[in-house]
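Intended use. Records like the one below are meant for learning the mapping from a protein sequence to its folded structure. Do not use them to infer anything beyond what is encoded.
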Amino acid sequence: MINFLKKSLLLLFLVLLPIITKAQHKFGVLAGVNLSALSDGILNSTYLGSNSFSFHIGGVYELELKEKIAFRPKIIYSQQGDRETFDSNINYELTYLNFPLDFKFFQKPYLIAGPQIGFLIDTKKNSGDFGDLPIFDYGANIGIGFDIKDFFIEFNAYQGFNTLIEIEFAYEDIEATNTVLQLSFGYHF
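Structure written out for the chain above:
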């Protein structure tokens, strides 16, 4: 699986290389806070634990495709899951290496939307063990941002589609996914 991933990334890089060398592009860094939970969806009200605060840090690349459209992939180290230790049905501290493949629309303010792939790099189970988690997480991002010269601020919502754990309660069964709200501050070089 890892070899397939390496070959796919290399092929993607080779396909995008001619575009990258001729288009306007910029690199940047970002960091911020997460409000995350394991839930049955961002629009649903069933949270398995409590919302918890953590952080994220990473890099961003922006490639202008048209005047008001850019491809904006990121690589982000992100702490997610339910990280609170009190009054919780489940307490999984999850750490991911996420790859949001966002598109940026408009200028000031701008919208971002796109898919995200995440790789689980660490799990800490502080209460009940509901089994092993899948190594991959995938879902969708949507957000809004604002550029101030070389600085930017973004608010982003991520909803995972991949079921991480299944829990049977007396009144219903829950398929838990990652639900994350992020506030990021960044700088373009």
